[in-house]
């Protein structure tokens, strides 16, 4: 199985943090489909999840990240029309 991390490129943000250039967009994913999509993406090397409160799938995304066996996942979340970079600390 190919992994996204083999050739993963990063962009350095103004605050010095690095953000993966490739990410999984969580728009219009719900329930088990959303959970499985996130788990599969993390399994093959994705470390950026693009989500927003507006999507109404925070529970599914959060549950998937908790189930995953990865120490760090970066995600973007749009809150009140502002994009913020968050880092999940070791599970």
Topology:
Elements: E1 10-12, E2 18-20, E3 24-25, H1 31-43, E4 48-52, H2 58-67, E5 73-79, E6 82-88
Parallel strand pairs: 3-4, 4-5
Antiparallel strand pairs: 1-2, 5-6
Secondary structure: helix percent: 25-40%
The first-to-last residue Cα distance is 25 Å
On the 0 to 100 scale, the average pLDDT is 77
Write down the overall geometry: globular
Task: Tell me the fraction of residues in β-strands, as a range.
Answer: 25-35%
Helical stretch tally? 2
Structural class: alpha/beta
Number of separate structural domains: 1
Overall number of strands: 6
Biggest β-sheet description:
4 strands, mixed
* Topology as a string of helices (H) and strands (E): EEEHEHEE
Flag low-confidence runs: none
Describe this structure in words.
This protein is an alpha/beta fold and 91 residues long. Helix content is 25%, strand content 30%. The strands form two sheets. Strands 3-4-5-6 form a four-stranded mixed β-sheet, with helices on one face. Strands 1-2 form a two-stranded antiparallel ribbon. The protein is globular, with a radius of gyration of 13 Å. The protein has one domain (19-88). α1 (31-43) runs parallel beside α2. The protein is built from two helices and six strands. A hairpin with a 5-residue loop joins β1 and β2 (18-20).
Short descriptors:
alpha/beta, single chain, two-stranded antiparallel ribbon, about 90 residues, 6 strands
Concise structural overview:
This protein has 91 residues and is of the alpha/beta class. The chain has helices at 31-43, 58-67, and strands at 10-12, 18-20, 24-25, 48-52, 73-79, 82-88.
